[in-house]
Structures are given as structure tokens and as C-alpha cells.
Amino acid sequence: MNFENILITSENGIGQITINRPSKLNALNVATIQELHDGLENLDANPEIRVIIITGEGEKAFVAGADISEFANFSIEEGAHLAAKGQELLFDFVEKLKTPVIAAVNGFALGGGLELAMACHFRVASDNAKMGLPEVSLGVIPGYGGTQRLPQLVGKGRAMEMIMTAGMIDAETAKSYGLVNHVVPQNELLEFTKGIANKIMRNSPVAIGKAINAINANFKDGVDGYQTEIRNFGKCFGTEDFKEGTTAFLEKRKADFKGN
Asked: Residue 35's closest CA among 1, 12, 58?
């Protein structure tokens, strides 16, 4: 599959998607959102890929926001459709993916860029990263899940302040807020993130996928996360990975998980 706005590589079970619009600071447009969906879908369907990393091309930006020129003249209906389509196609899609997705935030992650990073299962940032949701400075609000995921990650008060001031926070502040898990020098970002990916890959892909689903359930209205956990816990008992994991433990050897 050929892409214009993203680059996809894979090595040793890790798939990497690089958003490749450096002249636009990797800003998200409709075409890039579609390509990200297609690329993620392809990697998720590949049983050899155990972890996906999303990052931005260059040293300045992960994603510096949405491409404002695409929607500056939209009507109310067009704006609502843009948000609904984007959430379905990319942001909710990433969150629900059974393959772990890590955001390697290598610079500015603003607006839709921060929303993309927050939709990933967790985040690692370079020490030069800056994050924020500046939408109210444009007379609009975050539309790709930012008003929902940011409070989940940093708390209501901090999210209110970040969104209402439209300001940016640096990487260390983001770490102290719980928005990112780790902060590392930019030249170490990808190798550090791959190190975490390698730790993840030692474990059962089936169990990880069910754990993602159960964790996400806790944040959904009308869903009992405990019941989701119970169901997914039970389903694990019917997998080959469970048989292999328990057998390996009893035999005091390293498990060889196949992902089924």
C-alpha cells in the first residue's frame, strides 16, 4: 500500500508509523487521518507485529495540530461531521486497537496531535516536546476527543486550565501531570520506546489485547468495567497462549507465545 503522508516500517515485531508532512509540522489533514487508519489497520492485522509506535518526521513536531485550512469555512453540520468521522476513523480506532500503540512524541503535539497521542495506549516524550490544546484560541473546542481524554489522564482541573488557557506545557510538566510516562533526550526517543516495546513483546498478545479492552471499559459510560474484566479473564482460559504461559511457568522456562 502506497502512502503520501505517512511512512511505515517494521522490524523485529515492531511496526512504526511516521507522520511525514514536515513542511506542515506534520499537521493532520483528512487524507493523513485516512492513511493513519489504513496503516494501523494493516499493522494490527499482521500477526508478526506485536507493538506499534507512532511518531512524527523531523525534530520539531509529532503533530502540530490539524490542517486549519481544510475546515476554516465549514458550516455547523460540516464541523460536527468532521469531528464524528475523525473520531471514528482514527482516534477511537487507535484507542480500541488490540495491538499496543505507543506515541513517541518528538516535539510539538498540539490540538489534533495531542489528541492522537492521548488516543494511543501510552506516551513517551522527547525532552523538547511541547503539548497543548489551543483550539479555543481559534474559536472552537477540541473535536477529536480532547475534552474527554485529557481529564481522564491529568484530572478535571488541570484539563480545564490547559483547554481554557490554550497554553502549552513542557515535557517534564506533562510527566508530572501523568500525561506522558517517560521523558528522554530526543536522540534516544525511538530506541527507548522500542525498549519498552520489547518488554511488551515478551508477553501474550491475546492477553494484552483483552487487557486493553478491559482497561478502556472503565472509561465508558454505561459499561461495567469489572464485568468486562471478568469476561475477558474467562476468555483467556480458552487460548493457546494461556496454556503455553501456565505450562512454561510450571516447567520453569520462558513462554513462547503465538498470539492465539
From this structure: 1
Does residue 77 have an active-site annotation? no
State the catalytic residue, choosing from 77, 115, 172, 240. 115
The reply to whether 115 belongs to the active site is yes
* Helix H or strand E segment including 165: helix 156-165
CA geometry: angle at 91 spanning 87 and 93, to 5°? 95
Of the candidates 41, 135, 172, 188, the residue annotated as catalytic is 135
CATH H superfamily, domain 6-200: 2-enoyl-CoA Hydratase; Chain A, domain 1 (3.90.226.10)
d(CA 57, CA 25): 8
pLDDT, tens only, 32-66: 999 999 999 999 999 999 999 999 999 899 999 88
